[in-house]
Specification:
By secondary structure, this protein is an alpha/beta fold. It is built from 18 helices and 25 strands. Helix 16 links the parallel strand 21 and strand 22. It is globular. The structure holds fructose -6-phosphate (F6R).
């Protein structure tokens, strides 16, 4: 996982590359570099640390030239260092390469190339590609790249230039995303669309196993066998500012505040205007298809997995289909029990998560139908699944996922209702209530966001502690898991979620005077039980913040503070509860002086195992 950009045209390449890389830092940010071709020779500038370090160096010593490639790295092979930062060159600096992915047979390649006299300057898998190009050089860059690729196993998106062929850049995609930005008298390559939006809205997403030859005048695409392919660029309609911070201190804060709109957009066209009917026109399933499903396996990672836990309850409650929720990195190496009637539902914000994609491919190879819920239309997951429900959250830049989670929940509720209706499994009145309540969610989220100042104050107090516990039962527990993940990943405070009834089986030993506990009490059927669990931690002098429905009259008697959330049906509680939990994590991270949008050791899009 890393970010790639490339530019060829008339502008100063370093400016375009730095601007593009700044939009891709969410893909990795432990080092960055550029290679710019000028007067027949490559100039390389690379540095460990954030992109700003590289930008500062280039400001002092700018590089001339209007053709270059750049990279922002998330280390996989070789620690973060200047030497391991991309681009990488061969022995004679005749070729430069940037790469996203993993070259699986790089050790073998490296030994072989070293035996042939090649000198390696880094510990990366990528450098082997540069030396392979040198080894295979035929005098024609595209032909040389195609030959070199035959030796490589693994996943890659590559940007390549050769000093002997100025005015040309090669882009290749195999299992890692890559887009081409098509301008006038200039062209671009990038790992993701926001990197080129400042310059062009005409974009082509390279297909799996495609190679593009990019010059300032045009772009030609080929298969990896060298056969020309037709390609059709599309016009990006979303606004470039949507990918910018828009006045907020951090992308995460902006994205939390975008949730009412993201939910509204995700509901749009799927709830009739009068709020009475739920539909997913993009699926167009028949009753027979819905009735045929014997079981659903939901497969995802991290936050998307947590959304899946809510999805299980939604689908089982409404459609009465048994659902298992599985972590993709586990699922892909299991031999799951499925029949040809089992539906695999993968959830992925980015649509590029390696484990989720592998699980999807495994499922398809077993002959199962795959439905994907994703936020990225042109992503690998979206392209390889049989059916897709897009969450219209817009680009999510902050590493910590927020609006993607909320919209995944919306998509899952809609899907549960859709299948339930097709199967005739649910009382039509219950669906009407659900549809009506869903239409009101965006407004209630807006109301909830107004509580931010109160949460900021609580977060400041909580952030002084090295632990926090998140408790709930049923759907409250599913949200507690996501609340704890959010809290730990950006505040770096140890946080754990527990089903409230499970505490006394061990965890209660960790409850000491003053320790922060966030307890959720929105599930009517276990309300009394949840309150007794809260009393158990209160009796050990924990500091308890409860999240309860507006109008709740009991909870405040058992806790230190209550944050009231606008009432909806308990079934939809996760859509409400998650907002204060996200804000709590956000403000705890700010209070600790952390880099909120780029938490240590993490990257936005995990395209490697
Ligand atoms: C946490 C977070 C991650 C992602 C996970 C899956 O805030 O963002 O846990 O949810 O890496 O990513 P996607 O949904 O892109 O497959």
């Amino acid at each position: 996982m890393c970010g790639i950009v490339g530019y060829i045209g008339k502008r100063r390449a370093q400016d375009v590359l730095l601007s593009g890389l700044s939009k891709l830092e969410y893909r990795g940010y432990d080092s960055a570099g550029v290679a710019i071709l000028h007067e027949g020779a490559f100039q390389l500038e690379k540095s460990v640390g954030r992109l700003s370090v590289l930008a500062d160096r280039l400001e002092v010593d700018p590089l001339a030239g209007s053709q270059g490639i750049g990279h922002t790295r998330w280390a996989t092979h070789g620690r973060p260092s200047d030497a391991n930062a991309h681009p990488h060159a061969d022995c004679s600096s005749a070729f430069v390469v940037v790469h996203n992915g993993i070259i699986e047979n790089y050790l073998e390649l490296r030994d072989d190339l070293m035996a042939r006299g090649h000198q390696f300057a880094s510990e990366t898998d990528t450098e082997a590609v540069a030396h392979l190009l040198e080894e295979h050089w035929t005098g024609d860059l595209m032909e040389t790249v195609l030959r070199a690729l035959r030796d490589i196993r693994g996943a890659y998106a590559l940007g390549i230039m050769a000093a002997a062929e100025p005015g040309k850049m090669i882009a290749v995609r195999k299992h890692s995303p890559l887009v081409i930005g098509i301008g006038e008298g200039e062209n671009f390559i990038a790992s993701d669309i926001p990197a080129v939006l400042e310059y062009t809205r005409n974009v082509y997403i390279l297909e799996e196993g495609e190679l593009a030859v990019v010059t300032a005048a045009g772009v030609s695409c080929f298969t990896l066998e060298g056969v020309p392919v037709d390609y059709k660029p599309f016009r990006v309609t979303w606004d470039a500012v949507a990918a910018e911070k828009g006045g907020y201190a951090h992308f995460m804060k902006k994205e939390i505040h975008e949730q009412p709109k993201a939910v509204r957009d995700t509901l749009s066209g799927r709830l009739l205007d009068d709020g009475t009917r739920i539909d997913l026109p993009e699926l167009g399933w028949s009753e027979a298809m819905a009735l045929d499903i014997d079981r659903i396996h939901i497969v995802a990672c991290g936050t998307s997995y947590h959304a899946g836990l809510v999805g299980k309850v939604a689908i089982e409650t409404l459609a009465r289909i048994p659902v298992d929720v599985e972590i993709a990195s586990e699922y892909r190496y299991r031999n799951p029990i499925v029949t040809d009637r089992t539906l695999i539902l993968v959830i992925s914000q980015s649509g590029e998560t390696a484990d989720t994609l592998a699980a999807l491919r495994g499922a398809r190879a077993r002959g199962n139908r795959v439905l994907a819920i994703t936020n990225v239309v042109g992503s690998s997951v979206a392209r390889e699944a049989d059916d897709v429900i897009v969450t219209w959250a817009g680009p999510e830049i902050s590493v910590a996922s927020t609006k993607a989670y909320t919209t995944q929940l919306v998509a899952l509720y809609l899907f549960a209702a859709y299948v339930a209706k097709l199967r005739g499994a649910v009382d039509p009145q219950a669906l009407l209530t659900l549809a009506h309540e869903l239409t009101e969610i965006p407004e209630k989220l807006e109301e909830l966001l107004d509580t931010a100042p109160v949460i900021e104050e609580i977060a400041r107090e909580f952030s002084a502690w090295s632990d926090a516990f998140f408790l709930g039962r049923g759907l409250d527990y599913a949200v507690a898991l996501e609340g704890a993940l959010k809290y730990k990943e950006i505040s770096y405070i140890h946080a754990e979620a527990y089903p409230a009834g499970e505490l006394k089986h061990g965890t209660l030993a960790l409850i000491v005077e003053g320790v922060p506990v966030v307890a959720m009490v929105t599930q009517d059927d276990v309300y009394e039980k949840s309150l007794s669990n809260i009393k158990e931690v209160k009796a050990r002098d924990a500091h308890v913040l409860a999240l309860a429905w507006a109008g709740d009259t009991q909870t405040h008697k058992s806790v230190d503070r209550v944050l009231y959330v606008p009432r909806t049906i308990p079934f939809l509680a996760p859509l409400m509860l998650i907002v204060p939990l996200q804000l709590l994590a956000y403000y705890a991270s700010v209070a600790r002086g952390n880099d909120v949008d780029k938490p240590r050791n993490l990257a936005k899009s995990v395209t490697v195992e």
